[in-house]
Structure formats: C-alpha cells, structure tokens
Prior knowledge:
Strand content: 25-35%
Largest sheet: 6 strands, antiparallel
Amino acid sequence: MKEIIINSTSLEIRSAIIEDDDLVEFLVEREQSRRLVGNVYLGKINAILPGIQAAFVDLGYEKAGFLHVTDLIGSAKAISEREEADVLEPAPRRGSRRREIRNNQKPIEKLLFKGQEILVQVTKEAIGTKGPRLSTQISLPGRFVVYMPSLDYLGVSRRIESHQERARLRNFISKKKPPNSAIIARTACEGVDEKQIESDINFLHKLWRSIKKSSEKASAPNLVHEEVGLLIGMVRDVMTENVDRIWIDSETDHKRLIRYLKTFSPKLCSRVKLYKDKAPIFDKFGVENEIDKTLERKIWLKKGGYITIDQTEALVAIDVNTGRYVGKKDQEETILETNLLAAREIPRQLRLRDIGGIIVIDFIDMERESDKRKVLAELRYHLRKDRSRAKAFQVSDLGLVEVSRKRVRPSLLHFFSEECPYCKGMGKVLSFDSLATKIERWIRRVGSRTKEKKIQLRVNSSLAIFLEEERQDVLDALERQYRMKIEIQDDPRLHREDFRLVSLSSFRDLVQELT
C-alpha cells in the first residue's frame, strides 16, 4: 500500500510518502525559502571562465548561477539521462557527453559574452557555497509528459516496461508533438487516455509560448516562469495508479488538489482525502518520530546491527557494523546477513534523507565473492525503487561500494540545520588538555618576552575549573619560574577554546600584542 501524507501550514508544507507502513520519502518547502529548481530566468552573464569552461549568470539573487558549457548545447542523450527515458535519436555508444562536447563544440568564450542576456532554467539548487546549476535547455514537466523546446525527438520513460504500451505512446506522441520540440512520456502516461495526453502537450506548448513572450518583454535579471510548489509538484510527479490515498490536513489545499486532478486526472480525485481529526496528521500516521530520526547519525538495523551516515562537502560516507548482532551460525553468515540488511536500509535512508552526489559504503569485509555479489544485487534492487536516478558500482579492491545519486537540492540535514557556531562545523572542539598545554606555551612566551609581574588569564568557566583542579601545579611552577603572579578569571562569554592574557598593570591584551 502506498500513501502520501501532506501537512500544510502557513509556514511550510511537508509531504511524506509511505510504502507498506515504511516512511520512504519526505519533502518540505518553507514559504521564505521556496525551491528554485524548474524556475526559468532571463539572466545576464557577469563572468566567463575559460579555464573551467563555465559562465556565472546573474539571476537577481546573492549567488550567481553556474552554467557549464555542457549545459549550453541540448542533446537527446543528455536529456534522456536527466529524465530517465529512452529516446528515438541515435547516440554514440562510447565516450562521455563531456568528452563529446569538448571534441566537437566551440569553447564557451566563443559562444557567450559578458553582459549577454540568456534564458536559463535552474536544474540544481544552490548547495553550500555553490550557486544554483543552470541549463539553457528548458524542460517543462506536465502531468503526463515533459516538453522541451528547441530539440526534436520523442522518448518514453524507462519505467514503462510494456513494449506494447511504449509503442502506443510513441506512435501517438509522434502525431501530436509540436514541430521543433521534444516530448518525453512520463511514467504516469501508462494506460492513460490519449485525449488526456494531448491536453497535457497542448497546455505545455502554450506555457512555453507564454514564457517566450514574457522573456522578450523583460529585462535581465528577471524570473519569467516559476515552477509549481511542493503541493502540486508532489501530486504531478508522484500521483500514479499505484498510489492508494493522499491525506491532507488543509481544506484550502485539499480543494486545490481536487481542482488540479479534475483537470488532468479526474479518475484519481476520489483518492484525495481531507484529514479532519484533532491529532496532528503526522502523529496520526506515525511519521513525526520517523522524521526526527532522519537527522540522527546512527541508524539501527534489525537484529542489532547498525549503519552510520556522515555527510561531508565532497561525499557521503556510510559505515556498516554488526553492533550487538552476533548471529547463530558462523562469522561469515553473520556478516552476510548484516550486510544484506544494510543493503536494504541504505537506499531507503538515501531517499528519505534526500542525500545525493557521491556515496561511499563501507560494508563489513566479506571473504566469499558470492556474498559480495548477493549484497550488491540487493543494494541495486532497492535503489531501483528511487525516483531519483541512483547507480551502484562494483565492489572495489578495498571492499567499498560507490553509489551515485542525482542531487537537485540540499539534503534534509542541510535544510534543517546550520553550521554549529561553536565548533564551526567540525563536530569537535579542542580538549581541555590541549587547551591547557596551549595556554602554558603562551604564558612562557609572555614570561620570556615581557617584564610583566602580574597577569590575568581569562578563560571559559568550564576551562577555569579544569585548570584549577588539574593544572594548578603547572601554573604554580610557571609563577616561580618567571616570578609572575597568574590570576585566573572565568568569563562565561568566552568560547571554550578562547582565552586572554591581560596585563594587570596596563590592561593590554598580551596575546594580541605578541601574535
């Protein structure tokens, strides 16, 4: 059974997908931080960097958008990879798209110039210090098809497996496709009446003409088309015949969903239910506690094993451990069983936490090659359930498995949290022992380079207690060696790692003076 649970308030909209009583996907959108992916802008190029074959495009925000030369030239191969569809256009079997463009296309400095106005679409949200990723190939998703102007081909989602259905869709779309445009049949097309598909194509064609007209009248930078929000986007992209129910707790948004479905999928209207109970909707469906767990580093597996997930700027590292599980048979069977459980849970966590990019999984070492194949097959099977494109590579010589997953926005951890102001994102602070040793070195520096007779050591309250209880003998020895009185003053306003050495005769900051 598959259900979509939507919690809508004035501050945010949260959407959860539940499959067979398991929370598998969670999305959130806040009013003050609407997503940019799908938006179309008339931007202005403010810098071209030949060294990386990219341009920065002013969109009217603090961070400029990033436009790589490979996103300038539309190709059926590239779009088919992005939309996960097979297209009716021959593509080379060997070589990457990046190599193909490098060999056959002009450099970016010959294609664009500074100050040029250009129509672009956001394909990836800004993440960390990086601005949003852009493309000049506009892609407009509808309920049943994706419409792309300036290209000329048609495609069908790879998730539609029936050869007969794929042939039906190709035959129909080829007759209804507007000239000089590309159409891809989405998964929701399967079994749908041709009139509905045609209506979707016509709607998107009119939308594109409206976008073109708006861009011709606008001055850069300017937003000329805003993608639908999470509420409609979730129903448009996820609502298929295999979704049993949609529950929503807002009467206003319930009416919006019904209006949308009446236009594009009237048969599904009866599956949208208004939640009226007094208990919060996420509590009722057991979702709230599961969401809280998505921010935890450790995830327990059945039988006592666990995995840890560490997200860095470069990649995501996942470690698998047997934990409390000791098994009932030999060690290899225990390891295999734990790794198989992890291979089922990791794809769910990637999807649930919206983790993308490069993921490296350190499974427990397996001696038997057959066990490695079983674990990899299990991992790939569950990755196929993901709406985002994910791929698992072969087990490396070091026993690691690399996974790539399409990333279009920051993970839930980055969305819900911010850098710790205390540790600056490191997750650790200097130990008291390290700080005490550092302070000792500074006192020696003051004693040997100045003639101070009385100084005040200002430190955080917790560090002051440690120095008085654990390092008083060291401070006493320093006083005798340099014939200098050291007075400890606790200051709760100071960071744990900060300290001051102040002259009590002139109140000078000696650390700053001697740095």
